[in-house]
Amino acid sequence: MAEPIITPELRRWVVAQAEAGRRPEDVVAAMRASGWPEADAMAAMARVLADRLDPMAAERRTAAEPAGPMPEPDLSQSPPLLVIEGHPVQVLATLKRPRVLVFGGLLTAAECDALVELARPRLLRSETVDTATGGSEVNAARTSDGMFFARGETELIARIERRIAALLRWPVERGEGLQVLRYRPGAEYRPHHDYFDPGQPGTAAVLARGGQRLATLVMYLDTPAGGGATSFPDIGLEVAPVKGHAVFFSYDRPHASTRTLHGGAPVLAGEKWVATKWLRERRFD
Ligand code: PD2
Ligand code: ZN
User: Fold this and answer.
1) Phi, psi of 43 (to 5 degrees)
2) Residue 178 CA: which ligand is closest?
3) Exposed e or buried b for every residue in 128-149, given b needs 16+ CB within 10 A?
4) Following DSSP, what letter does each residue of 192-257 receive, concatenated?
5) What's the average pLDDT block by block, 10 residues per block, for the chain (285 residues)?
C-alpha cells in the first residue's frame, strides 16, 4: 500500500487528539467521517505517533522521501560553459551532495559595477528575518551593510533575473528580490542556514509568502584584496569571492542534514560586495 500523504495540519491534529487523551479508534473514526479510507487513516495515525516517539527515524525517512522539483541548471552534457540567453557562464566546480556549483562569469564586470552603484546609496546595516517573530532585526552575526532591490526594479536587474531563471530553470516569480551586501575589513557573516527554521514560531508567517527557500545564489560583485570566502563548514569548502563569479547551493529540506551550513569569512583587506538571490517553492509576491 502506498504511504498516505500526511500534511503538517493532519500531523498537528493527530498529535493534539493523542494529547487530549482521545482513543485511537475514535481518531480513526473521525478521519473516516471526513473521507479517509480506514486503512489509510490507521496507517497515517500510526506513522504520526511513531514519529513522535522516534524523531530521528522520522528525519531519516523524510531524508529518503523524494523532494519536489528543485532549481538546477541543465548539466546533462557536462558542458564547460552554458550559454544563457547569449551570455556564456562557466561551470567551474560541481558537488552532488550537498548540491553546490561554482559559476564563472555569470555577471560581466560592467553589470557588477552598475549593481554596486545602484545599491551603494541605499545600504543600511543588515537585518535578517527573525523567525521568532516573523519580522526583521539587526543581527550581530552579520556585520555587513545591505539592501534589497524589488524584483525587476530596473532593466539591468530584470535582465540579471531572467539570466538566473534560465540558468537555474526556475521562474523569475519564484525568486526574492536581489539582496546586495557590502563587507568592509573585519565584517563577516557567521555560519547559518538560509532556509527558515520550521521550529520557530514566526516561520509560518514568513512561509505564507512564497513557501520555503530551496536554493541560494551568491554572486560576487567585487574581489576583496584578502579574505571574504564563502565557507561551508560541514564539507570543508571555501569559495573564493571573485568578481562576476557565483556560488549556488540548494537544500531540498529545511534541515541541517542538508549540510548547507555556510558563512562569509571575515574580509581581511579591501571590500567584498555580493548580490544574493534566494529561490522559493512558490510565487513570491
Ligand atoms: O557573502 C557571503 O559569502 C554570504 C555568506 C553566507 C552570503 C550569504 N550567506 C547570504 O547572503 O545568505
Ligand atoms: Zn546565507
Assistant:
1) -65, -40
2) 1
3) ebebeebeeeebeebbbbbbbb
4) E-SS--TTSTTHHHHHTTT--EEEEEEEESS--SEE--EEETTTTEEE---TT-EEEEE-SSSSGG
5) 58 70 84 81 78 65 74 96 96 98 98 98 79 63 89 98 98 98 96 96 95 98 98 98 98 97 97 98 97
**Residue 128 to residue 77: CA distance in whole angstroms:** 38
Per-residue pLDDT, 136: 63
Any bridge partners for residue 99, and if so which?
250
Q: Look at ligand 1, atom 4, and give the residue with the nearest C-alpha.
A: 264
Q: Which position has the grid cell 548540491?
A: 99
Which helix (H) or strand (E) segment holds residue 83: the answer is: strand 81-84
What does the pLDDT read at residue 1? 45
Is the CB–ligand 1 distance for residue 200 below 6 Å? no
Tell me, in angstroms, the distance from the centre of ligand 2 to residue 257's CA.
Answer: 16
CB distance 189 to ligand 1 below 6 Å: yes
Shortest CA distance to 179 belongs to which of 146, 130, 153?
146
Q: Is 194 in the pocket of ligand 1 (CB under 6 A)?
A: yes
The SS3 assignment for 11 reads: helix
Quote the cell numbers at residue 151. 524584483
The answer to whether 27 and 18 are in contact (CB under 8 A) is: yes
Report the candidate in 280, 230, 259 with the shortest Cα–Cα distance to residue 95.
259
User: How many Å lie between the centroid of ligand 2 and the Cα of residue 275?
Assistant: 11
Residue 227 φ/ψ region, left for φ over 0, alpha for ψ in the -120 to 50 degree band, beta for the rest: left
pTM: 0.79
Query: What are the cell numbers at 143?
Result: 556585520
C-alpha cell of residue 209: 509568502
